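Troubleshooting log. The previous structure file for this entry was overwritten by mistake, so regenerating from the original sequence record. Sequence copied from the archived sheet and checked twice against the printout by T.R.
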Amino acid sequence: MVRAVVCRALGAPETLRLEEFPSRAVKPGEVRVAIRAAGLNFPDVLMAAGEYQLKPELPFTPGMEAAGDVTEVGAEASGVSVGDKVIVKMRHGAFTDEAVVTPTQLTPMPSTFDYAEAATYLAGHGTAYHALIDRGRVMPGEVLLVHGAGGGVGLAAVEIGKMLGATVIATASSDEKLAIAKSRGADHLVRYDREPFRDAVKRITDGRGADVVFDPVGGEVFENSMRCIAWGARLLVIGFTGGIGSAKTNLLLIKGASVLGVRAGEAVRKNPALGEVRLKALLQWAEEGKLRPNISHRLPLQDYAKAMRLLIDRKAIGRVALVME
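Regenerated output below.
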């Protein structure tokens, strides 16, 4: 029997249930993967609550990414073999012991990663890559302001921004989160509750402001970001964990600034070539030891609600993984 977290009614994490199902047969062109770890992302929480742009038909299993071992390869499925260690990319369905997918959903695991690291890599770092490289076009020497730098995508943005040669200002809600951001390359650290970040950015940049803002928080954070930007700044809208902000068009006009929406997955669905370049770079950087997810919590599958609460309560530093026993 295969265990899976099932959403039968939209709501809080506690409304989900861990259920058991028989393994289903592998059809031609499909592959069976024994899932060893699954990564949690904030869209998983939103999807289960019915608040995400993708609204799967009920019932469904949350989870966008996982890692494990190929245990069966169906007829007509090419490019994969039994025993391969793989990352599994899904729109939902990862919170389970076993997944039947197509080879196009699989990516070889970096040899430098364990299963939990592999299962928490591509969504967060892929979003940061798309934001900073495809959308923000960060250049060496620019000032990058990263909000929510203790979170999964924020911490990934700190790492990649530093790799790109930017001066990285990291903001977060605790010293512990900022310490991790510093270890991943942040040049300047700002705690929200100790100094208004807009004042800190102006102080750090001698009044010039940030060239690029990476914002997964939204709300007032987005609105105040418009008041500490440089000429020609790019504000990258990653998410809205803190609410949906309003753009002051006069501030954008005065600074010649741009607001850019970031949807890494949708961008690849619209233009698959973007995904190929991104994936190649991310896997290479992982093999070279330049990038690695920071996993603050590894919990068993049955603790899925507790794991999702860590994201809601912003207690995670970097990533949270469900590990199959």
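The chain has a mean pLDDT of 96. Archived copy saved in two places this time.
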